[in-house]
Design brief:
Elements lengths: L3 E3 L4 H9 L4 E3 L6 H10 L4 H17 L6 E11 L2 E3 L5 H11 L3 E12 L2 E14 L4 H9 L3 H6 L13 E5 L2 H4 L4 H9 L3
Parallel strand pairs: 1-2, 1-3
Antiparallel strand pairs: 3-4, 3-5, 5-6, 6-7
Helix pairs in contact: 4-5
């Protein structure tokens, strides 16, 4: 299998690729995601469309500089009743997000895009449905106190491979998708590239 470039600084995504024996180098896109999200929300884009657009923009941006290289871009968002929930930038926002998800079902959407010579050659999106248990505000605060800033700001508000698993009564979907990379489909595609 060919070596690829991961257009992301996500350590979790890199780890998933490593665990699946997909050789990669890391080259973050440094895309201004907030600007893109604002623009797309103003145009009435769904959370899924926003996720797909961000994955493609990240892959294409790095791919334009790395001609002949296969570049993988990825993006994950939370969709709560059709409304985009972005990563928190502070603990107050994190608490507000957890409170809005409390006792409800939402979708975690992970999109990936593979680009070559600055253009998308493949993309894929997968959803996981997650139902959060009912918690008191004190229980949510206690959960947040166990999560480091680094983890909190890089994995939406729950780290599914860690403490976050305890938040949910039901998870329908692939854990790798929830962590940011629907790896089975990525592998399938990469195995067919010459």
């Amino acid at each position: 299998m060919k070596s690829i470039i991961l257009a992301s600084k996500s350590e979790v995504r890199k780890k998933i690729l490593d665990e699946n024996n997909i050789k990669c180098t890391v080259e973050p896109s440094n895309l201004d995601e907030d600007e893109v999200k604002k623009s797309l929300i103003n145009q009435g884009a769904t959370p899924e469309l926003i996720s797909k657009n961000l994955a493609e923009l990240k892959a294409n941006k790095v791919s334009q500089k790395k001609i002949g290289e296969i570049v993988l871009g990825a993006d994950s968002v939370i969709d709560l009743n059709g409304k985009l929930i972005s990563k928190p930038t502070n603990r107050t926002e994190a608490m507000n997000i957890l409170s809005s998800l409390n006792g409800k079902s939402h979708f975690l959407i992970s999109s990936v895009c593979i680009s070559l010579d600055g253009k998308m050659i493949w993309n894929y999106t997968e959803k996981a449905e997650m139902k959060m248990k009912n918690f008191t505000q004190e229980e949510l605060q206690e959960y947040l106190s166990k999560i480091s800033d680094k983890n909190l700001y890089s994995y939406n508000v729950y780290q599914i491979e860690g403490e976050g698993k305890k938040l949910f009564s039901e998870i329908k979907g692939d854990v790798d998708t929830i962590m940011g990379l629907p790896i089975r489909n990525i592998r399938k595609y990469l195995e067919n590239i010459k």
